[in-house]
Write a structure and sequence with these properties.
By secondary structure, the chain is mostly helical. It has 18 helices and no strands.
Length: 415
């Protein structure tokens, strides 16, 4: 049987160009906004230490306040994004973030900076960030056809990875030169620019999916959870993501402390390891679509999770010395390469296999399981380190990662 050549009418070509321009605006806006988010991640702890003379426990709780929305907000965010149009959410969350961030320079000028204020700011920014990132991730498949979806997801990840590195460096420079309060003015400006570009993403639907009746939000959350739990491809993948969040929380939380105190890497060595990780994340985002086309999504996921777990091992056994530092730099590069490949691939698999009206809820279920477990694992890591030691906690986290990677090899997701 032969098929007629595929043709595209003027309206289809116009629609394709509109989607392409809209995706470009989305990527630019997310890059600028993520630079700003990285600035306040540097500036808020600096404010706590320099303006309030915060204790280590207060600084840790400030980080917890910024991370806990991943656990509290992710699932309701999925329901909202399956009900309502995405572009107003993107614009509104950016503008709200600009207003929240601007409160800090104002408070500093009035001499009213306090830990309760910083906790509130961190919680608000974390909640807005969860909702905004969810909306931008949900927008990507609507602005790309199925054949180019993985490449679009990878480009999205590459943009925010690059923006994160740039923002962290910029935040450090601004805090050092202008002070942490004034540095946040640049953060607020970045959110306004991001809102303006989000307003240009015109190819997104102007209305949300048509629903027969608005149900209680908990019913919609349960529907997304049930679908994720019953699907034979998504279920094992989401189980592994949950275990990965727990294992990563146990290992990453104590990594910097371990490297500085036991391995004696120094600030320079720690910086080299972090830069290598950022470069690895960028490399993973760029090569993920090519690997998936050649080997298939299942194989890429199974190998990626395994490499990510194995690359935790060098840090556990590392000792002072240049050779170990080189090994840690290489391991950091490979670990983040694998993590980014896994992240973009599993998100594409979710989008390929999930009905449109459930897509945002399934996406947020995955984020809730993976990212929401991180703050709890972070707290557990600190307590366990007192009881059994830092290396042992990191070893337990690595074993969790290895076991979860092994689970995926035996599941339909690896086919």
């Amino acid at each position: 049987m032969t098929t007629a050549p595929q043709t595209h009418g003027p309206s289809e070509r116009l629609d394709g160009r509109l989607k392409g321009r809209s995706l470009t605006f989305l990527l630019v806006g997310e890059g600028v906004g993520f630079v700003g988010s990285s600035v306040h991640r540097v500036a808020l702890p600096a404010l706590a230490v320099l303006y309030v003379d915060a204790s280590p426990g207060e600084v840790a709780f400030l980080a917890f306040a910024g991370a806990i929305p991943a656990l509290l907000v992710s699932l309701p965010a999925g329901v909202l994004l399956d009900r309502y149009p995405l572009r107003p959410v993107l614009v509104a969350t950016d503008l709200a973030s600009a207003v929240v961030v601007s409160a800090i320079p104002a408070a500093a000028g009035l001499g009213m900076v306090s830990m309760p204020l910083l906790y509130s700011i961190a919680l608000a920014l974390g909640s807005l960030s969860v909702l905004h990132l969810a909306a931008s991730m949900a927008a990507v498949p609507l602005l790309s056809d199925t054949r180019r979806l993985h490449r679009a997801n990878s480009t999205f990840t590459a943009v925010i990875t690059t923006a994160g590195v740039t923002g962290s460096a910029l935040g450090t420079v601004l805090v050092a030169t202008a002070g942490p309060a004034r540095a946040l003015l640049a953060d607020a400006t970045s959110f306004v620019v991001s809102a303006c570009t989000a307003a240009r993403v015109r190819a997104l639907p102007a209305t949300g999916p048509v629903r027969a009746a608005r149900r209680p939000i908990l019913d919609d959350i349960r529907e997304g959870l049930r679908y994720s739990a019953k699907d034979e491809v998504l279920r094992p993948l989401l189980m592994v993501l949950t275990a990965t969040g727990i294992g990563s929380g146990l290992t990453v939380t104590l990594l910097a402390y371990h490297l500085l105190t036991a391995v004696h890497s120094g600030v320079t060595g720690l910086g080299m390891i972090m830069v290598a990780g950022s470069l690895g994340g960028l490399a993973g985002a760029l090569i993920a679509p090519r690997l998936t086309r050649r080997y298939g999504a299942g194989t890429v996921l199974a190998v990626g999770f395994a490499v990510h777990a194995l690359m935790q091992i060098p840090a556990i056994f590392a000792e002072p010395g240049a050779a170990w530092l080189a090994a840690l730099v290489a391991a950091s590069f490979l670990r983040f390469t694998a993590a980014t490949i896994v992240g973009t691939t599993q998100r594409s698999v979710q989008q390929w296999t999930t009905p449109h009206h459930l897509r945002a809820r399934v996406q947020q279920t995955a984020l809730w399981l993976g990212q929401g477990s991180l703050p709890l694992a972070t707290l557990a890591a600190g307590g366990l380190a007192i009881l059994i030691g830092v290396r042992t906690v990191m070893l337990v986290g690595t074993l969790v990662l290895l076991l979860s990677a092994g689970m995926l090899w035996r599941s339909p997701s690896a086919i």
